Amino acid sequence: MKKTSKEAINSFKGFLSRDLTRREFLKALVSSAAVLSVLPFAASQVFLVPKQKKIEDITIKIGNVNDLKPGEGKIFWYPEENAETPQFSNLLIRMKTAPDVYEFRAFNRVCTHLQCLVDYDSERYKMICPCHAGEYDPDKGTVISGPPPNPLPIVELKIDDNGDIWATGIKGVIGRGR
Ligand code: FES
Description:
Elements: H1 5-17, H2 22-48, E1 60-64, E2 73-77, E3 89-94, E4 104-108, E5 119-121, E6 126-128, E7 135-136, E8 143-145, E9 154-159, E10 164-171
Helix pairs in contact: 1-2
The structure holds FE2/S2 (inorganic) cluster.
């Protein structure tokens, strides 16, 4: 059976503290070599493998309350600012409330039908999928009509004292996007 690093180190300590037979000496030598060969690899892994962040740990500023008039929307990127990746594409929509009421919703744009990217139509006040005319409600992201089987994933928002809007997480499963 293969020795763990700890066992190998213990056996090497034993080697240092007592008289050994030739067989024991060789055994300890092989164990020590095994530890030394693994150490540089283990150390490099600490630096090479980036720590995976969970989406709920990622907070990105996506705009300010004054960027949109009531009923308007805009696209933003989250959890990464990467316009090349469709599944990071989201919609921020300001609800059609009074001009001095700042109420916002945000949704991932990947349609839950066959993963086209939905657009926001401010005139019709709906999110619409260009592929098969699926329609979503901009208040809750639920399906109004068409083939989508599920609501759009919700991007969670926080508004700070300066009126800056932050995306702080996503509720729901994002598709691949296309
Ligand atoms: S992909 Fe959106 S409705 Fe079909």
